[in-house]
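Appendix B, record 7
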Amino acid sequence: MIGGSLGINAGFATTLQGAVPSERVYEVLEDFIRFYKNQRSSQESFHDFVSRLGREAVQELLNLYMESLDKSACF
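Structure tokens (predicted):
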């Protein structure tokens, strides 16, 4: 799950499909955070960023990483 929020503009997290080996979770999180920091709009929250991209686009990012686990790829 990714991108939920609390407060005035509360929203549910988006469920993604797939599994990442526990020893690789740090790398995936680091890549997602880097992508967010490089692609977000000014002052855009992570929840708003995920909402703007859409579940399918975020899932595609995860799929790219999962398909390349042996190659240590990142986005």
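Remarks on this record: The chain has one domain: 1-75. The chain has a mean pLDDT of 77.
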